[in-house]
Amino acid sequence: MSTDTTAGLPQAEPPEATIRGIVARGVRRTFGDVVAVDSMDLEAPAGQVTALVGPNGSGKTTLLLVLASLLVPDAGTVRIAGFDPVTQSREVRRRVGWMPDVFGTWETLTCREVLRTVADAYYVPPATARTRIDELLTMIHLDDLADRPTQVLSRGQKQRLGLARALVHDPAVLLLDEPASGLDPRSRVELRTIVRRLAAAGKAVLVSSHVLSELDEMADRAVIVAQGRTVSTEQLTEHVTQTRPWRVRALDQAALIRALQARSLSFALPETATERDGVEVAIASDTEAAALLADLVREGVPVLSFQPAAGALEQAYLSLTSLSGDRR
């Protein structure tokens, strides 16, 4: 269990506290003979959404527990908004909003009472807490269930309440472990909007998820891990400059194919393809994709859709985890 050597003493912010967000270097954590995290590095800057991506058993949840000051690492250094989760756990917890993948709650308490209890634990002034709780219940669309016991909530509704619980003290850093689990499609879209808004407000957001397509739309950068180690850090907001497949559909597929052949572009029909599936075209960059689309439209090819066959994050993840030999 972590110890807080600063408890009860007035604290001046250390120089490292000017470094906003999350910085972890060489983090290692074992459970007996099992190495869950092995020399893992991660940065999640303030004002950005960072995706933490990896196969099952790659150490994602263990690392998140270390960052939340709920597990002590065997080795390595961690700073959360400049504070050490091991020796300054109280300062870290004041600044962190933690949403675990499984949300446990007090089933006899109402949604409002759950949030009020958490606000009290963070010493949020009562007047501030009342306003904050009302805002959060409206934001997560549980205002109509605010005074109902949480035992009546569905899995997705409990997930939304878990997000509100993580935000009740207005933290500077958010750790979200599988936040979209159990959410319906509309709630997933709303979650992306909320997370992007939080990053725009200057918060550091670290999201772990298996749904790569959602992270592609949500994240600015990604840290890919496998077998307890960091494999790569990808900047997702930059234009992709490597060749990747794009899926193009047109009302007249023959006209589309002729236009691609005229440009000597490499293309293929997807397996078990019909005209509805379109054509997969290898394109060297986002810039060249935009130019090709403009040319096709200008030449009168009736394009229905033009999009990457796989997102940048999905492509990077599949490539890197394949190279690392991790198939778990």
Topology:
Blueprint: E1 22-31, E2 34-44, E3 49-53, H1 60-67, E4 75-80, H2 89-95, E5 96-99, H3 111-121, H4 126-139, H5 155-167, E6 173-177, H6 185-200, E7 204-208, H7 212-218, E8 221-226, E9 229-235, E10 244-250, H8 253-262, E11 267-268, E12 279-283, H9 286-298, E13 303-308, H10 312-324
Parallel strand pairs: 3-7, 3-8, 5-6, 6-7
Antiparallel strand pairs: 1-2, 1-4, 8-9, 10-12, 10-13, 11-12
Helix pairs in contact: 3-4
Written account of the structure:
The protein has 328 residues and is an alpha/beta fold. The protein has two domains: 15-235, P-loop containing nucleotide triphosphate hydrolases (Rossmann fold, 3-Layer(aba) Sandwich); 244-314, Alpha-Beta Plaits (2-Layer Sandwich), CATH 3.30.70.870. Helix content is 34%, strand content 24%. The chain is built from ten helices and 13 strands. The strands form three sheets. Strands 5-6-7-3-8-9 form a six-stranded mixed beta sheet, with helices on both faces. Strands 11-12-10-13 form a four-stranded antiparallel beta sheet. It has a three-stranded antiparallel beta sheet with strand order 2-1-4, with helices on one face. α3 (111-121) crosses α4 (126-139). It is globular and about 70 Å long. The protein starts with 21 loop residues before the first strand and ends with a helix.
